[in-house]
């Protein structure tokens, strides 16, 4: 009986170790010329996010919609906008006018290795990242004029678990263990 309990505990520990050693995709926002991320965002595979900004010519909103795949690929799925479509850098897709006067390009589904853009000022672009219910104004993390790269990366589950333990520890005590 003790041997079977010990074997079950050892198997559970081994499975937990294997799970913790696995990696999951993350989204990282960086200044293109630096290695350190401005933001590292935990993302579940299949989760969607978008980059919203004021279009520089039309002075109207433009939103690029993406999905992060399990293998770390970023896929541009569609775009929504209130723009006159001046022909600067658009992707192919199905054009659909929307009842509110805006429009969308759907069915793009294009892999993008990274999302690159020059961060605009609050009055000219105000680039904002939307992930789930979170709204992240990128000017809170970088300066107008910075070249920004958004790319996916992988992070081991043990790193994420350790970060969560440290946050909980800080909320209750002043020093983490170890």
Explain the overall architecture.
- With 178 residues, the chain is of the alpha+beta class.
- The chain is built from two helices and twelve strands.
- The protein is elongated, with a radius of gyration of 21 Å.
- It starts with a helix and ends in a 6-residue tail after the last helix.
**Helix count, per DSSP?**
2
Query: How much beta, percentage-wise?
Result: 35-45%
Report on the biggest sheet: 8 strands, antiparallel
Rg, rounded, reads 21 Å
SSE pattern, N- to C-terminal: HEEEEEEEEEEEEH
Shape: elongated
Structural class computed from helices and strand pairing:
alpha+beta
Low-confidence runs (pLDDT<50, min 5 residues)?
none
| Helix percentage range | 10-25%
Cα distance spanning the termini: 36 Å
Number of E strands: 12
What is the average per-residue confidence, as pLDDT, rounded to a whole number? Answer: 83
Write the layout of secondary structure elements.
Elements: H1 2-21, E1 23-31, E2 39-42, E3 48-54, E4 61-68, E5 74-81, E6 94-97, E7 103-106, E8 110-112, E9 115-118, E10 128-131, E11 134-137, E12 147-156, H2 157-172
Antiparallel strand pairs: 1-2, 1-12, 3-4, 3-10, 4-5, 5-7, 5-8, 6-7, 9-12, 10-11
Short description:
With 178 residues, the protein is of the alpha+beta class. It contains two helices and twelve strands.
Descriptive key words:
about 180 residues, alpha+beta, four-stranded antiparallel beta sheet, about 40% strand
């Amino acid at each position: 009986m003790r041997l079977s309990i010990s074997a079950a505990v050892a198997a559970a520990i081994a499975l937990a170790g294997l799970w913790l050693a696995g990696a999951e995709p993350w989204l990282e926002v960086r200044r293109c010329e630096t290695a350190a991320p401005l933001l590292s965002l935990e993302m579940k595979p299949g989760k969607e996010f978008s980059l919203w900004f004021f279009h520089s010519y039309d002075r109207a909103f433009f939103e690029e919609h993406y999905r992060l795949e399990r293998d770390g690929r970023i896929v541009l799925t569609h775009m929504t906008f209130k723009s006159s479509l001046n022909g600067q850098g658009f992707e192919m897709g199905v054009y659909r006018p929307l009842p509110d006067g805006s429009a969308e390009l759907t069915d793009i589904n294009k892999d993008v290795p990274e999302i690159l853009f020059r961060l605009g000022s609050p009055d000219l672009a105000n680039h904002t990242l939307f992930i789930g219910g979170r709204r992240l104004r990128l000017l809170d993390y970088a300066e107008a004029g910075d070249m920004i790269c958004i790319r996916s990366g992988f992070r081991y589950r043990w790193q994420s678990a350790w970060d969560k333990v440290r946050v909980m520890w800080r909320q209750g005590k002043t020093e983490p263990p170890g």
